[in-house]
Amino acid sequence: QVQLVESGGGLAQPGGSLRLSCAASGFTFSTDVMSWARQVPGKGPEWVASISIDGTNTYYSHSVKGRFTISRDNAKSTLYLRMNTLKPEDTALYYCVRGFYNNYSFANFRGQGTQVTVSS
Fold first, then answer.
1. Which residue, 17, 79, 80, 116, is the most exposed by fewest CB within 10 angstroms?
2. Is residue 42 within 8 Å of residue 49, measured between CB atoms?
3. Cα dihedral 62, 109, 45, 41 sign
4. Dihedral class, residue 8 (left if φ above 0, else alpha if ψ from -120 to 50, else beta)
């Protein structure tokens, strides 16, 4: 079955960096658009970034554009999110999502999430 396993979260200081990874299995990773989303407890999920199947096209939310970089390694079936210049408001549970982000894909095709906490 489809499995998405995120890792790489943790505690970072404001201005710091983290790199998230998402190991995918159970489907043909190289033929799917992939996305990252995040959610703060008590709030709705928020789309963060998406990447085309070959990695040549990337899309970012306004809140992370210029600071985060989404990438993928199709040979390893792995999705990445490089997060630089982290801010306290980036604190959230980050999810890897199969496909473009929408309510359906988030509800049905996401991993268990990895926690990112930005604090001094």
1. 17
2. no
3. negative
4. left
**DSSP-H helix ranges across 1-120:** 103-108
CB environment 65-94: b (16+ within 10 A), e (fewer): eeebbbebebeebbbbbebeebeeebbbbb
- Residue 57: what are its φ and ψ, rounded to 5°? -120, 130
CB atoms within 10 A of CB 96: 27
- How would you write the pLDDT of the chain (120 residues) with one tens digit per residue? 999 999 999 999 999 999 999 999 999 999 999 999 999 989 999 999 999 999 999 999 999 999 999 999 999 999 999 999 999 999 999 999 999 999 899 999 999 999 999 999
